[in-house]
Amino acid sequence: MKDEPIIQDRPKRRRKSGRNRNLNLIIFVVVFLVLIVAIPYYLFVPREETFKLQQYEQAAVTVRDFIKNVSASGTVVASDKSVIKSEIPGTVIGIFYQPGEIISKGDILVELASDELEDDLQTAESEYQKKVKEQKQLVLDHQRNIQQLDENTKSAEEEYEAIKAEYPVWEQLYQLGEISKSQLEAEKKKVEQAAKKINDLQENRVYTIDKYELDQEALAGIIADYERNVKKLQEDIDSCKIAADIDGKLVTLPVKIGDSIQIGNTIAEVIDDTSLIVEGEVSQNVIDAVEVGQKVNINAGSNQYIGEVTFIAAIANESNIAIEVAFDQVPAELRPQTSVALDIQVGIFEDCLALPRGRYLSSGMERYVYLIDGEKGIKTQVSFGLINGNYVEVKAGLAEGDMIISGSYDSFIHLDEIEINPEGGID
Questions:
Q1: CA–CA distance, 405 with 414 (Å, rounded to integer)
Q2: Pairing relation of β-strands 376-381 and 320-327?
Q3: What is the pLDDT of residues 258-283, one digit of tens each?
Q4: Which of 18, 138, 304, 400 is most exposed, with minimal Cβ within 10 Å?
Q5: For residues 298 and 320, what is the distance between their CA atoms, to the nearest angstrom?
Q6: First to last CA, the chain
Q7: What is the pLDDT of residues 354-363, one digit of tens each?
Q8: Model confidence, pTM
Q9: CATH number at residue 391
Q10: Residue 226 to residue 126: CA distance in whole angstroms
């Protein structure tokens, strides 16, 4: 048996290498830094906010037509009206109608006493003869103008044919290198200018004829008016009676017995209250969209009427353009000088995506909607267009059949996504 010492020797410890000690230190530092960052993050960074709607209004994207309107304002006036002025000086000795009464063309409104009718008759006859001479002169001038235009056109055609015949020679010279391209272009331009000159002369001839016919028609109307005036003065020499020149309602009669009347004084104003139209103004910024014949909604207080654009002025009045609108059916209850609002239908856009208007428009800043996707409402950027009545056009961002939350977004507009109760939607 081998003897063992009572106190055994302790085993020798291994010395840890410096490399292991450095690794442990690095691990400790990393863990410590992670804890320093993670604990405050966990304690202080806010959790992602959630929001759930249990009940909400919803609406589907549908397809419908939209009408584009241009708004304007206007005043109801009579298109057929007459302001009757005295053509003779005199004293009122008779009044036969009062404002508000219905009168007919030819009814005597006021009777005057005057000693100057003969002078007026001579003047009217002189003006009548002057216009007849103007008419004859118009015919002579027209004949001379047409003859001159025909001669100029014939000369222009001869010039054109000559220039046109020379052009192939210039082309050959260009191909041979005898002239430059710019010279050839100049000759080509001469041919074009000669052709344009013929066209301009032909168009001027058409215009001259049209203008002559219009001038003749206008002058014939003036002559007829003068002829009627002469006849009327002849008839009034003994009676000095002033008559209505249209059928309608007597609106004003600002004279009384004993008044001294001068030439040009207003005796009466008569309107045909079956010829009411609307005179309106449209901003110059949108006038290009307005055309004659377009349908117009005419709003007078709570009443609405239908009409169409019949006239658009060629010249602006400051920043507005004057228009006229005719009623489809002239309303008997509407009075002249009534102010109205006009909605001019300038375009119809068919098969547009649409949503019913709702509180989502204002609360979504007219840029966002919450698209219903299962149990979620997803914030979606959209683009809106026209508004007609209770519907707004959807130009981009949604498709037909999509469902959106159509109530107010004020409580959750800051969230990109919310939770919803799929059964909580109310149409």
A1: 15
A2: unpaired
A3: 999 888 999 999 998 888 999 999 99
A4: 18
A5: 19
A6: 103
A7: 999 999 999 9
A8: 0.46
A9: 2.40.420.20
A10: 10
